[in-house]
Fold this sequence. Notes:
It is built from 12 helices and 4 strands; from the N terminus they run ααααβααβααβααβαα. The protein has 225 residues and is mainly alpha-helical. It folds into 2 domains: 104 residues, Orthogonal Bundle (Recoverin, domain 1), CATH 1.10.238.10; 92 residues, Recoverin, domain 1 (Orthogonal Bundle). The strands form 2 sheets. Strands 1-2 form a two-stranded antiparallel ribbon. It has a two-stranded antiparallel sheet with strand order 3-4. The two termini are 28 Å apart. Pfam families: EF-hand_7, EF-hand_8.
Amino acid sequence: xxxxxxxxxxxxVKFAQTIFKLITGTLSKDKIEDELEMTMVCHRPxxxxxxxxxxxxxxxELQVLYRGFKNECPSGVVNEDTxxxxxxxFFPHGDASTxxxxxxxxxxxxQTGSVKFEDFVTALSILLRGTVHEKLRWTFNLxxxxxxxxxxxxxxxxxxxxxxxxxxxxxxxVLKEDTPRQHVDVFFQKMDKxxxxxxxxxxxxxxxxxxxxxxxxxxxxxxxM
Length: 225
């Protein structure tokens, strides 16, 4: 592995840690300058004002994210291998590779095999600070693996199992082999309103918003983003 590749991957672990601080609210205004000094060089991102208008991040938060992104990986894009590296760091007791694959595909909306900063920060803005409707639409797209506009039971099963695999045995010490399937059966029974074997976006939105248990479960899954 070249020095550039090593620096890119190590840098994105630090980048992921910065994202984690944003998620948990520990990246306070007083700490932002420290984060910039530790992990980034002085560089003003192009199109910052446009991204600020399009997302729910402040200009300073976008600077933190962008400078880390560009400084540690000068190519300006993230590939799937780097994505998997980041998730492996955060979930060392499980296998995060499959979930990272599905998540990467959800970020890679143009299906180019790489994610630009604009793609990444737009999705991140929805997941962290979007409306309930926006978050649910994004989650639907994640579950819709083949992008045909519907979710079938196997797609939902693949995502749920990937999440359980990622969380690992230390999170679920008494997890039974059929637990993911049971979880999916409950979800699907409630969501497939007309019992045609698929869940449409409208069915997904309606089911989630009328069922507090589903909302809490989906929130748990969104938290592993």
